[in-house]
Design brief:
By secondary structure, the chain is an alpha+beta fold. Helix content is 22%, strand content 36%. The protein contains 3 helices and 8 strands. The chain has an 8-stranded mixed sheet with strand order 2-3-4-1-5-8-7-6. The radius of gyration is 15 Å and the shape is globular. It starts with a strand and ends in a 10-residue tail after the last strand. Residues 8, 10, 56, 80, 82, 130 line the site of cobalt (II) ion.
């Protein structure tokens, strides 16, 4: 089964509150939800930009975390593109069999209750892709 399409775009930001204000100003975007995942060192906000597009702003709570290291190395900017799939386990199995370098070989719980797994940018021309599977009660809806 091919993916459903882009679920959200992930942007790494230095200051979450400031970035939310920027998106309000630029696109009259509204915050859909906001969360902190302490053990991953992430503070994030998902914003609805127009009717269809979800942008995930991700900030680091500590320097020594994946997003903190990304910010130190590359600065704020494009971080990942999330692709929605119907069955994330089946996709990971298919990709592993195809020799794709996976950061997560098993799905894990990501932001906002999504099941997520990342593909290594080495296998995707430098782009970090996140596969997401929506919780059962959200199937077929966005955001
Ligand atoms: Co994401």
């Amino acid at each position: 089964v091919p993916p459903q399409g882009v679920h959200h775009i992930g942007i790494a930001v230095a200051d979450l509150d400031e970035a939310v204000e920027t998106y309000r100003k630029l696109f009259q975007a509204e915050v859909d939800h906001e969360t902190t995942i302490a053990d991953q060192g992430i503070r994030a906000a998902a914003l609805q930009v127009g009717g269809e597009t979800l942008v995930e702003l991700v900030a680091a709570t500590e320097a020594d975390t994946p997003v903190g290291r990304f910010l130190a190395k590359r600065g704020p900017g494009m971080h990942h593109i999330a692709i929605e799939v119907a069955d994330i386990r089946a996709e990971l199995t298919r990709l592993a069999a195809a020799g794709v370098n996976l950061i997560d070989t098993e799905p894990r719980t990501g932001l906002f209750g999504l099941q997520v797994a990342f593909i290594h940018p080495e296998s995707s021309h430098g782009v970090l892709y996140e596969l997401v599977q929506l919780p059962d009660d959200d199937r077929g809806t966005h955001g």
